[in-house]
């Protein structure tokens, strides 16, 4: 055995070079380990291996990429085949490099980044963390794991599953501590990197976090701490969010794709006196320090069994410049543990945290005074602050103050699309902009549920676009949300266009009955489906004895009247009507406002319509996305029947669109009546009877308000 220990990587085609080492084995002043496996080069991260040698010019590019960051290449030597001709020259070369390396600044031979983890019976969950760490674009890292499990079984698991990676250093405590501050303090003291990141044992880190943080630190010497955004998800991958009023109104959310699924990303707040007043408002994972700074601050408090992160964050905030990299950097998995220890621990956090730790440390470290010096002080007694009002909804005179830097290295420009309407109307323009990888996009909407936005963005292939939905919020507030909580580039654009679905009123008829009366004869035989309160039914000009009303739950007196009335569902009525084969000249359909029910009502109406008869359809023109939902947001059931507490047309328009699109040749004429007093009445006269098969219902239900409704308006000539 002779030092230095050398890894010599060569491809199989160069195996003849092995003979140089075999023939000169007794003369070599080093120990050479020959390999043809790229994975074996990982040994260079071990202190037991001192140099890595590969062949110059003939080595594959992928290998160069794998070892480009090894200790700033100080351990890495590229040789040509001619360098393997003289053993003395070879000995001098490797020994000189070995000894010189040992005299360099220690940072050259140590990892750039250290991740540290406290582990307690983690088992398979820690493999999830490792799988995310090894995907880092910056490969020059180490991972320090302190096992605080009560027995040796878990440490044996760690060694079996992680010891193959020489960048991982595992330590077993002599006894279980249970104090997280104590364990993290010890872990940090073992780190050798310039920068340290706290990594929970069961979480994930995104691939560019270490590289991004290194770039920010290297370009800004004053920055001592970096944080980013994160997501909370359950073990099964389901989303979790705390709510839009989190962090006293300073926190917020946006959605983006993670591992092919949409997730709620917590937009971590900026640093000021308010956000430092409570643990929930402070930066969560990832939390990244310069190692020297963290040690100078005294490291974690080993005497704090809980809330140790809040204490060290306050120390950090008053002793260095903080920076936020505004992007998703960390995935925190929700712990559903309900064991006694977890319940007791959480109870203590809720007791000691807000009652003692937060107020005492806030005062002890003079947070308010320090933030005022940094221009990051906001009045904690102002109405908006005291009532946790979201900062983007506050009075227009409000100015958000903070002391951290915002460093967006991924994008030069950000585009805020206000409303799905704007996306549809400007789709081609946005597609062109989307080709620029240095442009960031966020779609903010006030009409559609977030799941609908996800579906639409998926349909357009906008996988890297972010989005969020605030139902019924004014569009101007959406712009303020963007500018106050999301905007981090100097260059930006607001894409905001008027609504695409605002048909014009075309009649002076203020009642549906007036519209029906205008195109029918009083002697006509009339059927109305869905009478309910009877306004239209009673005001039509047809002779009383020629009227037939149908409703399972009428709200007016239908007894002792000259008109006919069936207190039943339309399905039951039409079933019974086939027995007497009654025909009608005019039929008004105003029953259940859902495509499935309306389609049956329409098909049944065609069967009982006289040859030159007319069909009238109510509520064909919803004003908003919410009005045309299959089930209204505000609804209730009365006598088993769906009722609504807001303007609602249902999705009848989809069936009408389908008719105009596919059965136009069966129509003699069609005309609509539209007035502010109602949501449109369509008059149809048939050229020939037709039936829409149930098999087309899936197509009907798949029509989309934002993509198909404008086409529907075009068919109506609106």
Key descriptive features of the protein:
Rossmann fold; 23 helices; 31% helix; twelve-stranded mixed β-sheet; 4 domains; alpha/beta; single chain; seven-stranded mixed β-sheet; 718 residues; Spore Coat Polysaccharide Biosynthesis Protein SpsA, Chain A
Can you walk through the features of this model?
InterPro entries: Glyco_trans_2-like, Glycosyltransf_2, Nucleotide-diphossugar_trans, SAM-dependent_MTases_sf. The protein contains 23 helices and 29 strands. Helix 21 packs across helix 23. Mean pLDDT is 89; it is low at 58-62. The N and C termini lie far apart (89 Å). 31% of the residues lie in helices and 23% in strands. It folds into four domains: 5-108, Response regulator (Rossmann fold), CATH 3.40.50.2300; 113-372, Spore Coat Polysaccharide Biosynthesis Protein SpsA, Chain A (Alpha-Beta Complex); 411-496, 3-Layer(aba) Sandwich (Rossmann fold), CATH 3.40.50; 512-715, Vaccinia Virus protein VP39 (Rossmann fold, 3-Layer(aba) Sandwich), CATH 3.40.50.150. With 718 residues, the protein is α/β, with parallel strands linked by helices. The strands form five sheets. Strands 5, 6, 7, 8, 9, 10, 11, 12, 13, 14, 15 and 16 form a twelve-stranded mixed beta sheet that branches.
């Amino acid at each position: 055995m002779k030092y230095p220990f050398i890894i010599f990587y060569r491809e199989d085609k160069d195996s003849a070079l092995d003979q140089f080492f075999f023939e000169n084995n007794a003369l070599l002043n080093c120990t050479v380990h020959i390999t043809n496996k790229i994975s074996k080069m990982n040994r260079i991260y071990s202190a037991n291996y001192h140099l890595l040698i590969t062949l110059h010019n003939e080595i594959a590019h992928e290998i160069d990429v794998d070892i480009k960051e090894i200790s700033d290449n100080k351990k890495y030597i590229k040789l040509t085949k001619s360098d393997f001709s003289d053993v003395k020259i070879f000995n001098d070369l490797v020994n000189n490099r070995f000894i010189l390396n040992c005299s360099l600044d220690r940072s050259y031979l140590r990892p750039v980044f250290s991740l540290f983890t406290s582990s307690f019976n983690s088992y398979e969950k820690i493999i999830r963390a490792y799988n995310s760490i090894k995907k880092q674009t910056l490969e020059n890292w180490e991972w320090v794991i302190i096992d605080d499990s009560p027995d040796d079984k878990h440490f044996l698991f760690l060694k079996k599953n992680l010891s193959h990676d020489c960048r991982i250093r595992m330590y077993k405590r002599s006894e279980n501590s249970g104090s997280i501050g104590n364990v993290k303090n010890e872990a940090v003291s073992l780190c050798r990197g310039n920068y340290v990141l706290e990594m929970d044992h069961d979480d994930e880190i995104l691939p560019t976090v270490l590289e991004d943080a290194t770039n920010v630190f290297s370009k800004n010497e004053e920055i001592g701490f970096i944080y980013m955004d994160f997501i909370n998800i359950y073990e099964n991958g389901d989303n979790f969010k705390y709510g839009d009023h989190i962090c006293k109104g300073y926190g917020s959310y946006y959605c983006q794709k993670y591992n092919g699924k949409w997730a709620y990303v917590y937009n971590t707040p900026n640093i000021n006196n308010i956000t430092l007043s409570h643990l929930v408002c402070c930066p969560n994972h990832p939390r990244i320090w310069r190692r020297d700074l963290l040690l100078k601050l005294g490291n974690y408090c080993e005497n704090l069994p809980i809330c140790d992160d809040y204490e060290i964050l306050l120390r950090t905030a008053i002793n260095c410049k903080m920076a936020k990299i505004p992007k998703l950097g960390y995935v925190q998995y929700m712990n559903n543990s309900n064991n006694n220890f977890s319940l007791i621990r959480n109870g203590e956090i809720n007791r000691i945290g807000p009652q003692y730790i937060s107020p005492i440390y806030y005062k002890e470290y003079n947070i308010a005074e320090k933030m005022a010096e940094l221009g990051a002080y906001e009045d904690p007694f102002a109405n908006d602050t005291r009532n946790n009002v979201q900062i983007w909804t506050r009075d227009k005179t409000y100015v958000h103050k903070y002391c951290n830097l915002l460093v967006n290295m991924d994008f030069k420009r950000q585009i805020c699309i206000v409303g799905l309407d704007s996306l549809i109307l400007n789709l081609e323009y946005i597609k062109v902009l989307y080709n620029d990888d240095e442009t960031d996009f966020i779609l903010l909407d006030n009409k559609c549920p977030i799941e609908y936005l996800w579906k639409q963005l998926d349909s357009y292939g906008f996988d890297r676009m972010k989005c969020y939905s605030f139902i019924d919020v004014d569009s101007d507030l959406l712009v303020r949300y963007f500018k106050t909580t999301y905007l981090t580039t100097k260059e930006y654009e607001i894409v905001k266009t008027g609504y695409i679905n605002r048909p014009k009123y075309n009649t002076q008829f203020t009642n549906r009955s007036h519209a029906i009366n205008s195109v029918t004869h009083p002697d006509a035989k009339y059927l109305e489906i869905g009478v309910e309160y009877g306004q239209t039914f009673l005001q039509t000009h047809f002779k009383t004895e020629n009227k037939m009303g149908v409703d399972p739950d009428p709200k007016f007196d239908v007894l002792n009247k000259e008109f006919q009335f069936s207190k039943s569902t339309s399905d039951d009525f039409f079933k019974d009507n086939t027995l007497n084969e009654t025909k009608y000249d005019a039929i008004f359909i105003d029953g259940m406002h859902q495509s499935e029910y309306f389609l049956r009502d329409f098909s049944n109406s065609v069967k009982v319509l006289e040859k030159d008869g007319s069909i009238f359809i109510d509520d064909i023109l919803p004003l908003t996305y919410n009005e045309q939902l299959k089930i209204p947001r505000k609804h209730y059931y009365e006598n088993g029947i769906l009722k609504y507490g807001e303007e609602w047309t249902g999705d009848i328009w989809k069936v009408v669109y389908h008719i105009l699109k596919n059965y136009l040749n069966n129509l003699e004429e069609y005309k609509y009546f539209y007035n502010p007093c109602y949501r449109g009445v369509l008059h149809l006269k048939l050229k020939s009877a037709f039936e829409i098969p149930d098999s087309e219902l899936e197509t009907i239900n798949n029509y989309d308000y934002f993509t198909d409704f404008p086409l529907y308006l075009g068919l109506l000539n609106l």
